[in-house]
């Protein structure tokens, strides 16, 4: 414990007098408290030794050079007060209250509320009485600007200097964030509100559009073909993307060198590929050159070309986050490289990889433009990806809302609703799975791991026992029981 | 790597100290006497690792092949059309490949304008949101906000397009027969600036039809901004949150307010992230198709009045015209696609090199 401030002699004198005059109660501390040097709050080792040395000896010649506590004690005569400690007296107003550490004060709230009220009132006055302004957006913008002005004014009454721009910047940042989120909420709520209507008809999810003419109401026809098409296309795309993408990411991390650097550069460049160009590429190669139909498979290929760089890149980042110590531990135990990858690297990165794949899936599911070019359009349910056109949900939504018929537009919104729900579900799934850092396990995974390592331990013990038996003399004790 | 260290063993050392009943025993090489020769370290990999490495290399090679194929094939196909069009490909506005008159002057201008509008709207939103999430938001709220921004990036573009077409344009921006809203206000009060001028529409004329303000570059740009903001925002947030704690505390210790700290520590530290995130958003905005396609009404002339009805972009052109099945028309579209790809590629490349070179550096995955 360091002493930042050594009292000057005059101050010490004053202290000494203070002790002599006013601090008499120290001598009458009940014996219960006496001698418990551990409760000394601010005395370091040197001072404590001096305290214990103090009782028998006469008062030290230079008590004033000691810090306050020691001074106080060594001036108390009498042998039975050895190691007397002055405890801080309880503060006068009962027990000490916990300090509030929040950075917000009541005046902040009031300034904000007052500014908001003033701004709304002023803008309302301007809009209804004083000026010919109209329009909701203008009202919102004007009242917000007024709010900022009034808020700055109110804060400047309380605070000074740099506090005013500080408050205004905080308010501005919060507003921008919530405006953005309001935009997101608007998009989602709008899609859900406009799109729920066709979903009230049970046929909407169980029929395709083959029976519904252009003027047919919502009671016939649905988007089953779109749902099936989406699932088939994304399944094929995932079947190619996931193994290839993760293999490539493993390659980038496990075999570093000039070649993998080159691959990484190309992959990064390809994330810039506009999705419509991916579709055009498949159209020109698979369809025009190789003579494939406009089909679900072609659409899957287009989605694959688009998704592959995204998944590789995300997986690359996640695998790079696996702690090197884990890998090295595995290698040091003698595991081969692929065993390390298979049993250490990939399981550690599992949640991150899952998140990468799911987010890539969400992107792939929602992508319209490559599908628009390569999948064709049909009103019938088509479960064969290799033959004939196949629609997916985004394509269906895109085509249906371009129709002039209200029922078709409603179906388009229904398709968008379904798509949005699908994406939301995938997203929530990704958050639940990907919430953990690399190597963190869920309870079930932990249990499984514990069970597995118990099994391993038992197996090793059995082997050891067998070996011991094989080398042991036959007259020895019977085979040792494998320890549990 | 399964590296086995083979230390030179003296020949008289037989089975090792362990013996047969201690197979896991370590073999201790006797200390070298006299000279101190460097150990020979030899990595020998087993057959399984050979297979693994072969497989991994094959995976990498496949990806490389697919990706290169896209680029090479795109260039090869585009070459045919580019040879016919020559340099006029970059100066012609019309798009009639079958009569040999085609060029990307109009669509490229449109693409860039839409992307610029999107970026101008997106950047303040992204910076503000990123600052709020990394600096101001309560700790418990932070993760939720990050998730929401990520969700915003995952919303399908067709949903944004539908939102723009059915809600944003008719209900918020160009309301009613006279088209009340922000575009009209801009045309009225900022019409003297060339890009805000609207030809054939007098905003002070009470019976002027609002349809002149629909389907414009501006509205398409707003829709694209919605898609671009979360991408830019997540890059910026990541960089902001890496601003070193020591410097933050230093700023506070010198008496800075929170805003003072942000201005002197976080923003200078995150400059690379802001620029890189913006460029990344720009790259995405250039390639956006469906949201633009749903909003605009395509025109094939250089349209620099962003509020005026009619706009175009390269990707919308491809979506519009791919149905013309003649191989040459496809080749011409390929050329347009190639131009677009090269542009996004350049933008992304600049973005990632800016991010990598900034102080916040390589740790961010942008």
TrEMBL record, chain A:
<dbReference type="GO" id="GO:0005315">
    <property type="term" value="F:phosphate transmembrane transporter activity"/>
</dbReference>
<feature type="transmembrane region" description="Helical">
    <location>
        <begin position="413"/>
        <end position="434"/>
    </location>
</feature>
<keyword id="KW-0813">Transport</keyword>
<keyword id="KW-1133">Transmembrane helix</keyword>
<feature type="transmembrane region" description="Helical">
    <location>
        <begin position="169"/>
        <end position="193"/>
    </location>
</feature>
<feature type="transmembrane region" description="Helical">
    <location>
        <begin position="297"/>
        <end position="319"/>
    </location>
</feature>
<dbReference type="InterPro" id="IPR051408">
    <property type="entry name" value="Phosphate_transprt_permease"/>
</dbReference>
<feature type="transmembrane region" description="Helical">
    <location>
        <begin position="109"/>
        <end position="130"/>
    </location>
</feature>
<dbReference type="InterPro" id="IPR005672">
    <property type="entry name" value="Phosphate_PstA"/>
</dbReference>
<comment type="similarity">
    <text>Belongs to the binding-protein-dependent transport system permease family. CysTW subfamily.</text>
</comment>
<comment type="function">
    <text>Part of the binding-protein-dependent transport system for phosphate; probably responsible for the translocation of the substrate across the membrane.</text>
</comment>
<feature type="region of interest" description="Disordered">
    <location>
        <begin position="1"/>
        <end position="99"/>
    </location>
</feature>
<dbReference type="GO" id="GO:0005886">
    <property type="term" value="C:plasma membrane"/>
</dbReference>
<keyword id="KW-0812">Transmembrane</keyword>
<dbReference type="GO" id="GO:0035435">
    <property type="term" value="P:phosphate ion transmembrane transport"/>
</dbReference>
<feature type="region of interest" description="Disordered">
    <location>
        <begin position="463"/>
        <end position="484"/>
    </location>
</feature>
<feature type="transmembrane region" description="Helical">
    <location>
        <begin position="223"/>
        <end position="252"/>
    </location>
</feature>
<keyword id="KW-0472">Membrane</keyword>
<feature type="compositionally biased region" description="Polar residues">
    <location>
        <begin position="72"/>
        <end position="87"/>
    </location>
</feature>
<keyword id="KW-0592">Phosphate transport</keyword>
<protein>
    <recommendedName>
        <fullName>Phosphate transport system permease protein PstA</fullName>
    </recommendedName>
</protein>
<dbReference type="Pfam" id="PF00528">
    <property type="entry name" value="BPD_transp_1"/>
</dbReference>
From TrEMBL, chain B:
<keyword id="KW-0812">Transmembrane</keyword>
<comment type="function">
    <text>Part of the binding-protein-dependent transport system for phosphate; probably responsible for the translocation of the substrate across the membrane.</text>
</comment>
<dbReference type="InterPro" id="IPR000515">
    <property type="entry name" value="MetI-like"/>
</dbReference>
<dbReference type="InterPro" id="IPR011864">
    <property type="entry name" value="Phosphate_PstC"/>
</dbReference>
<feature type="region of interest" description="Disordered">
    <location>
        <begin position="1"/>
        <end position="41"/>
    </location>
</feature>
<keyword id="KW-0472">Membrane</keyword>
<dbReference type="Pfam" id="PF00528">
    <property type="entry name" value="BPD_transp_1"/>
</dbReference>
<feature type="transmembrane region" description="Helical">
    <location>
        <begin position="102"/>
        <end position="133"/>
    </location>
</feature>
<feature type="compositionally biased region" description="Gly residues">
    <location>
        <begin position="13"/>
        <end position="22"/>
    </location>
</feature>
<feature type="transmembrane region" description="Helical">
    <location>
        <begin position="207"/>
        <end position="228"/>
    </location>
</feature>
<protein>
    <recommendedName>
        <fullName>Phosphate transport system permease protein</fullName>
    </recommendedName>
</protein>
<feature type="transmembrane region" description="Helical">
    <location>
        <begin position="145"/>
        <end position="168"/>
    </location>
</feature>
<feature type="domain" description="ABC transmembrane type-1">
    <location>
        <begin position="108"/>
        <end position="351"/>
    </location>
</feature>
<keyword id="KW-1003">Cell membrane</keyword>
<comment type="similarity">
    <text>Belongs to the binding-protein-dependent transport system permease family. CysTW subfamily.</text>
</comment>
<dbReference type="InterPro" id="IPR051124">
    <property type="entry name" value="Phosphate_Transport_Permease"/>
</dbReference>
<dbReference type="GO" id="GO:0005886">
    <property type="term" value="C:plasma membrane"/>
</dbReference>
<feature type="transmembrane region" description="Helical">
    <location>
        <begin position="61"/>
        <end position="82"/>
    </location>
</feature>
<dbReference type="InterPro" id="IPR035906">
    <property type="entry name" value="MetI-like_sf"/>
</dbReference>
<keyword id="KW-0813">Transport</keyword>
<feature type="transmembrane region" description="Helical">
    <location>
        <begin position="328"/>
        <end position="351"/>
    </location>
</feature>
<dbReference type="GO" id="GO:0006817">
    <property type="term" value="P:phosphate ion transport"/>
</dbReference>
């Amino acid at each position: 414990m360091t002493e930042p401030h050594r009292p000057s002699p005059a101050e010490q004198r004053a202290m000494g007098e203070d002790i002599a005059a006013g601090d008499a109660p120290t001598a009458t501390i009940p014996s219960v408290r006496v001698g418990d040097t551990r409760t000394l709050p601010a005395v370091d080792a040197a001072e404590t030794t001096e305290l214990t040395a103090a009782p028998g000896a006469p008062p030290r010649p230079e008590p004033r050079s000691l810090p306050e506590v020691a001074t106080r004690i060594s001036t108390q005569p009498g042998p039975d007060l050895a190691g007397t400690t002055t405890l801080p007296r309880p503060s006068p107003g009962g027990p000490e209250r916990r300090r509030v550490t929040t950075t917000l004060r009541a005046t902040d709230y009031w300034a904000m509320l007052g500014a908001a009220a003033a701004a709304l009132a002023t803008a309302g006055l301007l809009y209804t009485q004083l000026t010919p302004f109209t329009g909701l957006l203008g009202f919102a913008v004007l009242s917000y600007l007024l709010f900022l002005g009034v808020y700055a004014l109110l804060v400047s009454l309380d605070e000074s200097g740099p506090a005013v721009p500080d408050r205004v910047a905080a308010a501005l940042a919060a507003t921008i964030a919530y405006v953005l989120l309001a935009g997101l909420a608007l998009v989602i709520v709008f899609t859900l509100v406009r799109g729920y209507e066709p979903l009230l008809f049970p046929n909407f999810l169980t029929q395709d559009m083959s029976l519904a003419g252009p003027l047919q109401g919502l009671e016939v026809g649905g988007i089953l073909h779109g749902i099936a098409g989406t699932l088939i296309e994304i399944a094929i795309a995932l079947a190619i993307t996931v193994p290839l993408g993760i293999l490539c990411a493993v390659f980038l991390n496990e075999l570093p060198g000039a070649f993998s650097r080159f691959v990484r550069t190309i992959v990064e460049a390809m994330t810039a590929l506009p999705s419509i160009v991916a579709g055009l590429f498949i159209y020109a190669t698979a369809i025009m050159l190789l003579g494939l139909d406009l089909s679900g498979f072609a659409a899957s290929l287009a989605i694959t070309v688009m998704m592959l760089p995204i998944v590789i890149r995300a997986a690359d980042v996640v695998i790079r986050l696996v702690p090197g110590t884990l890998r090295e531990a595995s290698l040091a135990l003698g595991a081969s490289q692929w065993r390390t990858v298979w049993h250490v690297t990939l399981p550690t990165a599992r949640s991150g990889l899952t998140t990468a794949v799911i987010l890539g899936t969400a992107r792939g599911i929602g992508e319209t433009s490559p599908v628009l070019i390569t999948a064709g359009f049909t009103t019938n349910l088509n479960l064969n990806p290799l033959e004939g056109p196949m629609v997916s949900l985004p394509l269906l939504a895109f085509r249906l809302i371009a129709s002039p018929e209200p029922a078709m537009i409603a179906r388009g919104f229904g398709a968008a609703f379904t798509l949005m729900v699908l994406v939301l579900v995938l997203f929530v799934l990704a958050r639940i799975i990907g919430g953990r850092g690399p190597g963190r396990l869920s309870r079930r995974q932990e249990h499984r791991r514990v069970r597995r390592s118990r099994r391993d331990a038992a197996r090793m013990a059995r082997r050891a026992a067998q070996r011991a038996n094989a080398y042991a003399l036959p007259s020895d004790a019977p085979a040792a029981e494998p320890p549990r | 790597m399964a590296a086995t260290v083979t230390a030179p063993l003296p020949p008289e050392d037989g089975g090792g100290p362990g013996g047969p009943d201690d197979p896991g025993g370590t073999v201790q090489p006797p200390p070298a006497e006299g000279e101190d020769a460097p150990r020979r370290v030899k990595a020998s990999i087993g057959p399984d690792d050979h297979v693994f490495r072969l497989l991994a290399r094959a995976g990498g090679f496949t990806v490389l092949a697919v990706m290169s194929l896209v680029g090479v094939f795109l260039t090869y196909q585009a070459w045919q059309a580019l040879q016919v069009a020559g340099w006029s490909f970059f100066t012609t506005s019309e798009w009639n490949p079958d009569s040999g008159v085609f060029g990307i002057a109009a669509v490229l201008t449109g693409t860039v304008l839409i992307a610029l509008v999107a970026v101008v709207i997106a950047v303040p939103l992204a910076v503000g949101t990123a600052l709020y999430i990394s600096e101001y938001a309560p700790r418990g709220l932070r993760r939720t906000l990050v998730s929401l921004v990520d969700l915003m990036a995952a919303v399908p573009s067709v949903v944004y397009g539908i939102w723009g077409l059915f809600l944003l344009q008719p209900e918020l921006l160009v309301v009613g027969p006279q088209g009340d809203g922000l575009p009209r206000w801009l045309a009225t009060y900022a019409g003297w600036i060339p890009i805000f001028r609207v030809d054939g529409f007098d905003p002070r004329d009470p019976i002027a039809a609002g349809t002149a303000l629909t389907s414009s570059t501006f509205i398409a740009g707003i829709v694209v901004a919605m898609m671009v903001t979360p991408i830019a925002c997540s890059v910026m947030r990541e960089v902001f949150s890496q601003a070193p704690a020591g410097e933050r505390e230093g700023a506070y210790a010198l008496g800075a307010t929170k805003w003072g700290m942000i201005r002197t520590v976080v923003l200078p530290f995150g400059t690379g992230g802001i620029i890189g995130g913006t460029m990344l958003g720009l790259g995405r905005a250039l390639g956006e198709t469906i949201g633009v396609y749903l909003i605009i009404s395509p025109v094939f002339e250089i349209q620099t009045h962003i509020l005026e009805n009619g706009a175009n972009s390269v990707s919308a052109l491809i979506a519009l015209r791919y149905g013309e099945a003649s191989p040459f028309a496809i080749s011409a579209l390929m050329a347009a696609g190639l131009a677009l790809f090269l542009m996004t590629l350049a933008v992304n490349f600049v973005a990632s090199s800016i991010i990598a070179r900034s102080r916040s550096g390589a740790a961010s995955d942008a």
